[in-house]
Specification:
Strand order of the largest sheet: 5-8-7-6-9
Number of domains: 1
Order of helices and strands: HEEEEHHEEHEHEHEH
Distance between the termini: 31 Å
Largest sheet: 5 strands, mixed, barrel
Radius of gyration: 17 Å
Low-confidence stretches: none
Number of strands: 9
Helix content: 25-40%
Length: 271
C-alpha cells in the first residue's frame, strides 16, 4: 500500500509540485464547486497510478489543484463508493494520497437523505458524528503502521472547532444550517421505509452511501476533518416517495452555492 501511495504521489508531484494544505471531497452534484477555485492543474483519475475511476453520474473524476480562500487546495471532483465494486481500501486510497501530498485538513461534502422530521430538501447539515454499523471499515486486515495506529480513536471524527466556526460563518451569511448524525450505508439501493425508521431510531439524522469510510481513513492518518451533507431527499414521510438519482443531483446543485460559501470561508480561516 505504501509503495502504491508513493507511486501515485510521485506522479502527481511531477505534474503539480505545489503542496496543498487542504483536501476537499465533492459529493454527487457538487462538482461545479471548483468554479470558485483559482485552478492551476487538473489531473484525470485515469492517469494517476493505482487510482480508481468514478463510474457514477455527477462525479467527473479528476483531481483539481489550485487556490481557494487564500490556501493551496486539492479537490476530488468525484469520489469512489463501495457499491461501485471497489474495496474499502480502494475507496479511501485518494484520502491517503492527499495526506502524503501534504494536506492537514480534509473537508467533505455529500448528498444525503433526511430522516430528521425538521429537515427539508435543500437543507445543509453539518455532520457532528456518524454511525458506521452498515459501512465496511476500511481498516480491516493487517494495520499499516506507517499510516496510523491499529485502534484509532473516533470520539471526535468531526472537529468541534471547525463545526463552531462553520456555524458562525453560516449565521453571518444568513444561511440556515442544520447539524446532526450521518448514517453510512453501502447502497446502491435507496433505503426501504423500515430501514429509514430503524436508522432514525438509532440516532441518525441523515443517511448516505459515502463519507464514513473516507473519514475513518482520514482520522487514521491524522487529518482534521469537517463534513457537510446536502439533504437531497426526505426518507420518512407519509405520502408515496420514490427517490431518483436525478432528483438528488438537482437538489445538490441548487444548494451548492451556500455550501461553497461556507467551505471557502472556512478554508480562509484555517490556521
Amino acid at each position: 500500500m505504501i509503495a502504491k501511495i508513493n507511486e501515485a504521489v510521485t506522479y502527481i508531484q511531477q505534474k503539480q509540485p505545489v503542496k496543498p494544505a487542504v483536501g476537499i471531497v465533492l459529493g454527487s452534484g457538487l462538482g461545479s464547486f471548483t468554479g470558485e477555485m483559482e485552478v492551476t492543474q487538473e489531473i484525470p483519475y485515469s492517469a494517476i497510478p493505482h487510482f480508481p475511476v468514478s463510474t457514477v453520474e455527477g462525479h467527473s473524476g479528476k483531481l483539481i489543484f489550485g487556490k481557494l480562500g487564500g490556501k493551496e487546495v486539492v479537490a476530488m471532483a468525484g469520489r469512489f463508493h463501495y457499491y461501485e465494486g471497489y474495496s474499502p481500501e480502494e475507496v479511501v486510497f485518494p484520502i491517503r494520497v492527499m495526506k502524503y501530498l501534504g494536506i492537514t485538513h480534509l473537508l467533505i461534502s455529500n448528498a444525503a437523505g433526511g430522516m430528521n422530521a425538521s429537515f427539508k430538501v435543500g437543507d445543509l447539515m453539518i455532520i457532528t458524528d456518524h454511525i458506521s454499523l452498515l459501512a465496511v471499515n476500511p481498516l480491516l486486515g493487517k494495520n499499516i503502521d506507517e499510516l496510523g495506529p491499529r485502534f484509532p480513536d473516533m470520539s471526535e471524527p468531526y472537529n468541534k472547532e471547525l463545526v463552531k466556526t462553520a456555524k458562525k460563518i453560516a449565521a453571518a451569511a444568513g444561511i440556515e444550517v442544520k447539524q446532526g448524525i450521518y448514517c453510512g450505508v453501502t447502497g446502491p439501493t435507496f433505503e426501504t421505509r423500515a430501514e429509514y425508521k430503524l436508522l432514525r431510531t438509532i440516532g441518525g439524522d441523515a443517511v448516505g452511501m459515502s463519507t464514513v469510510q473516507e473519514v475513518i481513513a482520514a482520522i487514521h492518518v491524522g487529518l482534521t476533518v469537517f463534513a457537510m451533507s446536502v439533504i437531497t431527499d426526505i426518507g420518512i414521510r407519509e405520502e408515496e416517495n420514490k427517490i431518483t438519482h436525478a432528483e438528488v443531483l438537482e437538489a445538490a446543485t441548487a444548494a451548492e452555492p451556500k455550501l461553497t460559501l461556507i467551505f471557502k470561508t472556512l478554508i480562509a480561516q484555517l490556521s
